[in-house]
Amino acid sequence: MRPGSVMNRNLQEWIQEVQQHCQPKEIHYVEGTEEENRLIVEALIKQKTLTRLNPALRPASFLARSTPDDVARVEDRTFICSETQEQAGPTNHWRDPREMKETLLGLFRGCMRNRTMYVVPYCMGPIDSPYAKVAIQLTDSPYVVANMRLMTRMGKAALDLLGDQPFVKCLHSVGVPLADGEEDVSWPCNTKNLYISHFPETKEVWSFGSGYGGNALLNKKSFALRIASKMGLEEGWLAEHMLIVGITSPEGIKRYFAASFPSACGKTNLAMLTPTLPGWKVECVGDDIAWMHWGQDGRLYAINPEAGFFGVAPGTSMKTNPNAMLSIQKNTIFTNVALTPDGDVWWEGMTDTPPERLISWTNEEWTPHSTFKAAHPNARFTVGSLQCPIIDPDWQKPTGVPISGIIFGGRRSTTVPLVRQALSWGHGVFLAASMTSEMTAAAKGEVGKVRHDPFAMLPFCGYHMGDYFAHWLSMEQTGRKMPEIFYVNWFLKDEQGKYLWPGFGDNIRVLEWCFSRIEKRGDADLSPIGYLPTLDAINCQGLMVDMKALLKVDKALWKKEADELFHYFQTFRHKLPESLKNETEKLRNVTR
Ligand code: OXD
Ligand code: MN
User: Fold this and answer.
1) Model pTM greater than 0.90?
2) Which of 50, 59, 311, 350 would bridge with 268, disulfide CB 3.0–4.6 Å?
3) pLDDT recorded at residue 1
4) In the chain, helix, strand, coil percent, each to 5?
């Protein structure tokens, strides 16, 4: 792709503006070819950003190690710069867009000196989908380009699709200009000056200082969730932090579910589940993001805007997620995992017994006696969706797949039962809005602390969360077939701290109950928090589980929960929809 073939006038002007301001040494127009990728990867190896893994064990795969200060999304440096603070709402960090741009212009001035600026056209959603959207990322990180090639439809096809249309502008720099002749480091970043700034009105993202994950791969959280959620509000659709999975019963009935969990709560595992119940089949459409539109038949249809997985490596094994392990056998970029002496990768939880010797993600000698982790808890793998052995045949269907059920869930060791079904769409929205979860390593913060994470969108909603709740409530309209809503918790523990539910492949037992409820079968009791399965409604054959404990609704704990929720919801003030207020009151009354 020559500069001359960049037809979009806005794009040409923008590139020129950024070039003048950031002063890169050269511009590379990314085409997305194999040869181009080969050259980028070779340069990254030379720079020691990537290490080639043993081709006999892990063909065409690489390991990247970041610096210890650039390992996760940084939510307190993530900003929604809407025109007013009210539009960003109480859950987002707001900055005035003009002030933020002034600050950023200062930081971006000359920030790409002696670096290449890559122009990365990419499409979110199948190229031939009416719901696909094109964005352009300008970045000075070749590591970002190599990852985006796996995670998006990147290059010429996206640019051709764009034509002269408006597009989402994503500007990214690691924030480390080089003096003439200065040697680069293997992981340039400038985390002292970190900004991941979103401008929802003008559909722009400006990210400065980090080279890691969601801070730098602006296709994912920044565009496909924060900016897209605002587009969904404006255009009447939903951009959600949800996996999409197709489930076929032994009778051959196939239904699609979307499911929303906070980061690192097992979305990838659920999306690729290997059922332990005979006759059931699971196929994966996506593991992290769903864009959902209403079809003419009144059903909700979901596309996966991504083309690859950016999964958490630690804890992934042939036992917990064999399909993920099979997906990453080749053509994979690993970041912050450990290196084995024979040039392969390892992470905590991959095997029961760790190897005798490793090089840790911090590039240090590691043995099982070491007091530090071999892989970072937020270490990742990046791989194209097509490598997943159970990728759904319709995963790229332009109009998406029809959603019969939506599952919400969080990580809670107490209080929240294994599964329940919402009484109605409005009640389901209430359950999702009241989602709480113990924090994980996916974001910088206090791991284990319970926090509210409505719809698992707390870090990803590009506008006022109260308006977001109202948008969800407004989805229910005459003539539409609303999906059933469920709320699950795989993470309950007993007093000794042992998990009460085996999880992983056995989650199919819970999905079977959800499936039967959609078909108006399946036994349930009405409880103060929704429909609960009766004690024998979930197939537990071959398991030793305490279903009573798993389905327990402890009134005293729920009273605390309801009171706390009441106070949390007050932070949304007049933007809290009346129906959520009423549901909270009802919950407080029944648990009194
Ligand atoms: C992710 C996240 O990377 O949610 O998917 O943090
Ligand atoms: Mn996610």
Assistant:
1) yes
2) 311
3) 53
4) 30, 25, 45
